[in-house]
Amino acid sequence: MNDQKEIKLLIVEDDPGEITLIEELISGEGNIKLTIDKANSLSSALARLPQGNIDIVILDLILPDSMGMDTFNAIYYLIPEIPIVVLSGMDNDNLAIQAVSKGAQDYLLKGTFNGNLLLRSLLYAIERNRLKLELALERYENSLRQEMLSLGRLSGDPQASITSQMLGKSSLREGNKQIFNSFVKTYSEITDNAVQHRIYKTENSIQEPLLMLAEQLGFLKSGPRDVVEIHSEALKQKLEGMNTAKAQLYMEECRFILLELMGDLVSYYRNYFISFRKNIDT
User: Fold this and answer.
1) Is the full-model pTM beyond 0.70?
2) Percent of the chain as helix, strand, coil, to the nearest 5
3) Rounded Cα gap, residues 44 and 244, in angstroms
4) Calpha distance 11→57 (Å, rounded)
């Protein structure tokens, strides 16, 4: 019986000598069939990883186009489901602690390990990551169930909505599906920008598009129920097929955006009311 384990490894390292050394150290170690892929820059790694078929990454933090934790963050947030072992020439305890606390499975200092130690580090990293993903998936599914249940209660049954019954007003989703979908699309784009900003520290501002969305909603006399339904639909579409770690990130950002949009809409109605009273008084 052949119980040989197969590992597909991506080495992100710009020094050909280091890559050769890693290959030599772990080739022939244990009953492992090892497939090695290589990337010599952050950009080439970011292009390779979405293609899949990688079990684990060995990552040098110093690359021609990226340095330090920025290198780790860019790869981790792209593929948080794949374990990363940081391999560095910097004997820096703070950096090692920071990398592991952010999600790295291990931090190895170049020149301080043999093939057996490196292989064990990779195998343990894969196993720890598998257990971590199982736990994260369970937590995520529970959290998502609670989130959708709460949102369903907030949006409410149209027949049970006191405001709807008093005003005879249907929700935006029911009254104009096309406009509702365009708002969902805008809300979804704002969420993308918020997540990009959080991961890559981009300059994307969500304040202005959120204010514009609030004004458009206010102009249509939309209420909290409409906002919650837009949020719920955008979240539902976004999370479909998304990995657990990224889905949790989107859920967190969406909560902030929902609160901010509610606040902007309240400000719109307050300003509208003040202007309305001024016109009456004059």
Assistant:
1) no
2) 65, 10, 25
3) 24
4) 6
